[in-house]
Amino acid sequence: MNSKRLKFFTAGFALLLAAQVLLPGRSSAAKVMEQLPKPEWSYTLPDGITFWGTIDTLQSKNRMFIPLVKTVTVSPSKTKSSGMLYASIDRINGSANWVYDYSDMANDKPFTANGFYSASNGYSYFYKMWGGKPYDLTVVDPNGKRKWTKTITGSYSPVVLDNGNIVIRTLVSGNGASRGITEYSQDGKQVRKLKLTGKWASGVIDVLPNGYVVHKELDTNRVSVYRSLDALTKPLAAYTAPKAVKYPDFQVYPLRGGSFLIKMSSSDTWLLFGYDANGTKKWVRPVNKMDRINTTGNNYLIQSDNVYKLYSKDNQLLGKQQIGEAGDREWYCRITPSGEITVEKQYQWQERPAVVDPETFEGDIAKEDFYVLDPANLQIKYHLSTSWHDYETGHNYIYAGDGELYITRSYAPKTITKYMLK
């Protein structure tokens, strides 16, 4: 890299860190920091492996779990790839990293269903379909060692509970329609095995990470929420859509402490209901068709294009934030594993100089903006604004909370670097 390009790279990686207090209708001046701090560490993957789908990054207290892609050479003119592996990275110092590879390059079929999960205690879980409905469910300990594998014959993906247990929902064959629910502890012991009949045999059954059970009864336009798999006799709360509402769909969002939200949506009606931990309906709010609902801790976020509004579990406005110009829908927002809110936009191509000197022009320039919003009040905690040459633009920003940021390149990324924002 020549000195001129290195100089631009250093300047281009400068960022704006905004510590901005935002209450409804009021914000403070931004505090600017001109460059990223010195990296804490970097980790490069083994040959033939790249990061993939960092949007699906999971984390425990001490580790990151990130999907990977492996590419092998089959012949001089042919390669084969698999996404059935993931990296576990030590967040503290980037050491003790490992890759778990559950691919079978010779026998895996294209688009074989698979997925991986992690629990807060550092254990990881993955499933892999091996034809038809049966699949293998495997649990791996924090050191990357396989603990146990079970063959599951149902058609549902597993659910990892907040306590680390795994719930499997299955269809049960035989006389009479029924549903099966099996829960395993982290060490592979069966905690419970239920066979649900009658009303449970129809509709949709979901088990939420906090242990709540949701039953959507499609024939009655009703949704019921139960406190746990041990309390399926009487619902904690139930809501039936008015007869005038045709083909409603329901989504249940758990909040910390037992409160929860129910969203009802149909072709012309969109409502959000708030319930306390006792199952009492406390409030109702109309929402728009295109609004996105997310929860973080005890609060919930409504995203309307690029306008964000944060409400408490009691439906009180805690903060409002607009990122970018009014109506700009190209910003991407997500709730990170740490519970904080990030908003980003990449590939914002900048205007070329009026006169381009072919001897000095090094290519088009794009800007990337990355925000971290406080999940308590939508304060802007950090705002990174970076400029890149066209061959350098495109990055994955993985935010883990408390200023802990990981960055990889978007195109064939092999290296991940940790920064501590201050």
From TrEMBL:
<dbReference type="InterPro" id="IPR011047">
    <property type="entry name" value="Quinoprotein_ADH-like_sf"/>
</dbReference>
<keyword id="KW-0732">Signal</keyword>
<protein>
    <submittedName>
        <fullName>Uncharacterized protein</fullName>
    </submittedName>
</protein>
<feature type="signal peptide">
    <location>
        <begin position="1"/>
        <end position="29"/>
    </location>
</feature>
